[in-house]
User: Which sequence fits this backbone?
């Protein structure tokens, strides 16, 4: 009889343990991947200006970072695992200081569950899902290393790795609930990444088009970005692979270490005939441009589409190309006249 009671007690304890067991990272991903999206923003010229992440926090609303959609004239998205692109109907609400944006969309999806950061603490496990460098649906784990902030605005400092393209993705707790929106990483620092409390989305949603809380100004702003740089006055000298162009910094802050991709497309077919990657180490002040040049013999025989007719000679068969810019990442210079999210973080 005693043995039976002991077995019954053990079985009941086992059931309770199973009932309260936390889901695995794989389970969290599988249960929520339908709410994860890749975002692509375009500027007024129809050129891609930023790539980022987002997630459904309501059936027809996607959350992301403000810096992903800032200045965009068109935004498209696709659900992770899908090949179909969808148009964002409108940017419903934004907060520049919190680096948050709410996008209204026509495609309905099952949203994630958002909870307060009071549900987690320092040392707790967290899971980030996003699209670093465009690698869709990437999952990373870490812990909450600190909860920082002043004047009522708190920020989660996390060790879960994030990269450009991860911006705007969800940060899950070990229980599978979203506690944060990944937003920034401090370059040249180890595991210093940050997320905004996801519950602020609910406040932003109810505040109308824009809402800017009071944040401090005593700490560095986000250190990396990928939008706001424009290719201007491109030129190809003859047909010998000599190319010159300018990079214009449209941001309100100075930048440096701009890594970018130049793409050359055949004007008639749209085919990519060549591409090069470069890094401009120079200091680029806000609103100003700097001139760069490169020589690449792979471009022999090509002219920019806007160049005048070229007299054929020396056996060259010339063709016209379009020149495109894709900015991969750059560093913001630490000094900034504006208050942003990470201004409120304490060292």
Assistant:
């Amino acid at each position: 009889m005693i043995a039976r009671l002991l077995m019954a007690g053990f079985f009941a304890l086992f059931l309770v343990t199973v009932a309260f067991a936390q889901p695995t990272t794989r389970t969290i991903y599988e249960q929520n991947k339908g709410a994860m999206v890749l975002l692509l923003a375009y500027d007024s010229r129809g050129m891609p200006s930023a790539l980022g992440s987002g997630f459904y926090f309501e059936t027809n609303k996607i959350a992301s970072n403000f810096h992903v959609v800032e200045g965009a004239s068109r935004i498209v998205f696709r659900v992770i695992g899908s090949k179909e692109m969808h148009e964002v109907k409108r940017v419903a609400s934004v907060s520049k200081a919190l680096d948050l944006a709410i996008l209204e969309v026509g495609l309905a999806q099952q949203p994630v569950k958002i909870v307060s950061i009071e549900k987690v603490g320092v040392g707790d496990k967290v899971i980030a899902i996003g699209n670093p460098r465009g690698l869709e649906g990437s999952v990373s784990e870490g812990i909450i290393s600190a909860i920082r902030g002043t004047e009522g605005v708190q920020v989660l400092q996390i060790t879960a790795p994030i990269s450009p393209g991860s911006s705007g993705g969800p940060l899950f707790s070990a229980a599978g609930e979203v506690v944060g929106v990944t937003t920034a990483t401090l370059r040249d620092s180890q595991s210093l990444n940050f997320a905004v409390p996801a519950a602020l989305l609910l406040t932003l949603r109810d505040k109308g088009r824009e809402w800017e809380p009071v944040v401090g100004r005593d700490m560095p702003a986000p250190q990396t970005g990928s939008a706001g740089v424009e290719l201007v006055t491109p030129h190809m000298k003859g047909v010998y692979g000599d190319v010159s162009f300018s990079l214009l910094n449209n941001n309100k802050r100075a930048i440096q270490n701009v890594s970018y991709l130049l793409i050359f497309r055949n004007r008639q077919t749209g085919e990519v005939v060549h591409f090069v990657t470069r890094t401009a180490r120079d200091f680029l002040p806000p609103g100003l441009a700097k001139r760069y040049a490169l020589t690449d013999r792979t471009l022999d025989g090509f002219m920019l589409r806007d160049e005048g007719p070229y007299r054929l000679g020396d056996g060259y068969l010339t063709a016209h190309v379009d020149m495109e810019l894709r900015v991969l990442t750059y560093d913001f210079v630490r000094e900034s006249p504006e208050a942003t999210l990470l201004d409120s973080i304490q060292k």
